[in-house]
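Narrative progress, year one. The postdoctoral researcher (J.K.) led the effort to move from monomer predictions toward full complexes, under supervision of the PI. The following entry was the first complex the group processed end to end, covering 1112 residues in total.
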Amino acid sequence: MKKQVVKTIAALLLAVVMTALGSGCGHRRDYGMEFNLATDCQYSYVTDHDYWKKIQSDGEGQYLMQENFIYYYNTAKKTLVPLCSKPNCLHDKETDNDKRAECNAFCDKFNMELSYLQYYDGYVYYVLSNFMRSALPTKSCTLYRVKKDGSKKDAVFTTSNEEEVFHWLIHRGVFYYEVPGKQQNGTDVYDVSTIKAVALSSHMSDKNGKVIFATAPKYAATNFSQLLAYRNYLCFEVTLVEHHDETEESPHIDCKQYLYNIETETMEEIPVPEGYSKTTLINRVTFLKDKLILQLFDTAHNDDKTYPLPLYSINYDLTDEKVWLDNVPQYMWLQSCGDYVILSDGNLHYDNIITEEGLLNEVLKDAEQPCINVTIYSSDAREVSAFVYPRNESWGKFNGFGPDGIYVEIVNGDDGWSIYHFSLDDVLNCHGEKIKIDLAATRSYEALQEYED
Amino acid sequence: MIVGELRKAWRDKVFLVMMATVLAANIVCILYHIENKSAYYYEVRQQAQQQYIETYRTYLDEMEQRGQELMANFDEDTPVFLRRNVEKTERDYSRLSRPWIDAKYNVGMEEYAQYTYGIFFCTVFAFVCLEYLYLKEQRTGRMAILRTTRNGRRKMLLSKWCVLLLLMAGFTAAQEMMTVCCYGVVDSLGNLSSSVQSLPLFRDCPHAYTLWQGIAVTVLHRMVLAMVIGSVVFFCGVVCDGMLAVWITSCAWLAAQYFFAANLTVNGSFDFLCCINVFHSWDMKNYIGMYHNINLMGIPVEKNDMSLTVNLALLFGTMAVSTWLFAVRYQTGNSKRAFRLLTWLRGQLSYLLHVQSLFVNELYKLLLQQNKWVLPAALALVIGGSVTAYMPRDYGFEGEAVYHMYLANLKGRFNAEKSQTYIEQAGHAVALLEQQMNEANEAGDKGLATQLMFELWDKEAGYQRLTVQYEKLLAHPEAKRYWIDEMNLSCVIKRFDRDVLLFMMSAIVLIMLTSGLMASDQDKQIADLVNTTRSGREKLMWAKRKCIIFLTVILFFLAQLPSWIGYAQVLDLACGGQQLNLLVEWQIDSSMTILQLLVIIYTVKLLMDTGIVMLTALMARRTKNEFVTSVFMSTVVIVAGLVMYFCHTSVTLLVMRIL
């Protein structure tokens, strides 16, 4: 009898411990209602190619993805080192492929352009495709993470063989990723893309992946972009090309912005403000504390880059829609950083041309005028400051400030590459003058060799 | 007692034969791995060696600078371990004042360092030792008598442990010496007095070893690891009841070790588990050529020191626990709930089981009495999970979905006229898409142009693939022609990983069932009793053979079922008449049909299974030992499976290649 009681108690205790372990001790982390640098998507780094983010901040410095390596630039000390804490590692000077793979800073990119990184809670995350690493045909991708001090590197999650990850982000404990796919229906093939969410943990599995959005199986092509998150909201753009046949002149293309409430798990389409024609769509969304800022785009005036349209503000419940700033050229670049909204005119200096291969390319319109005008607005749409950003061919357009208010630019040179930086505080009191960007650190290429396999 | 145990082992001829066989298998494995390298290969490696020599000095000299760079970047929040790690690394490497780097590329040493299969043979030998030192005596009841004695039980088991450790260490030393000699003879070990850092593989080694010292240290380390493996296997043998339990627990530990070795890295968060892992540590590249410190409460500890400490603790721990258990337990055996359940089940089934047929009795004995129903059940689970692996993909890579769509419209008998019309229509659709894209480009509609471009890439790729297939079919009007979704067919054929897994699993299950049928009676010396009967011997043997044939056929069909379902999804029966030379994915110049090819492939597979079963039955009758037979044959199958897996091949692909 006594033995039985002891056994029962032991079994109950074991069950309690297992349940507690399984549910992460039952405590859900409180992320608060403000921006949290450690656990939130760093939406302020929205570049022209917003899904190719190469810079992330941890509040004290920046993590940079350059070629096949991740570097850490310490803002205060102005030091630039590979994200690997092993003194016996040659990092980017390593020529041996096997030994290079052992470097914690090395990210073995085969498709160099589609990789980017994200800082999250003491780790730097990035996703790599397994296509070249597997003997079997696979589209799977693996999420890797490197500890912020460069001491550890782990593969934390691999998608299934059919799931190729395009855009992704980590926000408040969840890994969101876009999976493009095709679905055959009778004699036609449709594009069906989904956004899935998997809780970040030590036992991540694609089986636990929850589909939070999927396009209907009726489009010829679908595409996600501008995947951003703030507080309890995930925002993204979906481009949908309708299925078309030979009788139609041109397929109908639709572009929609969606807002997903992480807490209530509800998805809503952000409506185009009333009074606009069908050719007007929402081109860009950014977060400004307790409201969203919407930038419109009129496809009927596609060629007119300076075509004026207002910026709208709207609450997160998609109410109280009003003009936030009027007469903004539709090609102006919109960013936000904390309490500020930043508009830059980099795009206005470019022309779209068609190359001989039939591809679209951007070329600088006026080589004599290589500067970008940047204007900073407060949350009540008051102009706070304006400055001229001295761009050139290698610097690219204005990339936006990090959540720590630091702007970082990587410049590739012949013998090495350099980091230039300035802070938001430096430019808050400018009156339209050209600013000076400081050279912070350089790293020579030395034995850095092109990746060969 | 130790000497007595050693003598016992020495006098057991079968044991000696098994040991010699395992050693011979190791040599065969080495010879299999030796490749003929071209002069160009040596030239390239020699150039690489020259470059390595030039950079090695810099590598060492810049160690301090790299350390200082890191230290400069650390702040107050940086874990103390990282600082200490940098300091320790600098200190460790500072001991290397002037390593003598051999200018000549040392191919033999490199090959030896990369040969890691020795651990598998050590594992097999550990099972052999367990069988002859402990299980055999337990099975024959000798152990039970000895256990009734008041004193001496601990001494007896400890002496067996000591003999096991001696045998494992001796075997490993002999095996390693043979391996070194093999590579020395075939490739030459070069100048063994030069520093171990002469090989780029060992660049990160912080010790001032010469090459021969490096070999000696590795061999000693492997001897310890072999003793640890032997200890764990022996521990399972002493603690668990029944052969199946011993087999499962030992294999589970080894599989877990192998899994960790394959999936963990020293750079990862579980570096501790990786470093103490026997498979990881066995690899000379990792043991000598990798420098890593483990964080032990902020103190950096060299991974090899940690590995040695933990493995020795495991060795002595298993020794102590099993000796204590052996001493306190009078009789092993479980006659509790499971036994009562089985007895009840037998009672309920008594009517059904009261049959005269020897065949049914043998099956009952094998599956229920020996509890081997677990094996086919486990295999069924794997087979169930494999069905989806052979299913054709809806969408693979660029253009594949479009190709599938075209084939969905065309599939069946090839009709030149109808096909031509369809292909013209498809071509027209692609051209129209291109035109629409160009128009969007000209209109400056970047978004639409990009979307159309992606769609065009897909359609063009699918269309081109279709056209190639069409032209090939059109060029052979004399043959029976069919539109076949070759991408899906290829997908089923190329699943070598599943093929190998199913082959290995089904073969191991067959081996264990066959050895159970053929050797368990001999093992328990019941066979001697049966052999004294006048007319039952032949009938019994026939019943056993029928059982084996029955199980072989059933397991073969079960194991092949997932791939058959896959082929059925891809091919209509009529399409099986397509000649192989009409396939685009496979450049086979043969007029054989797909159906004939599949018959050949599955016949070869059936023959392989039959061969394995026959060898197992033969070996079981010769050794009269179920345990040794199943372990030995399973190892052969596992090694064959691993070779196939790492060569990215399978029986199906081999047959295709031959054709």
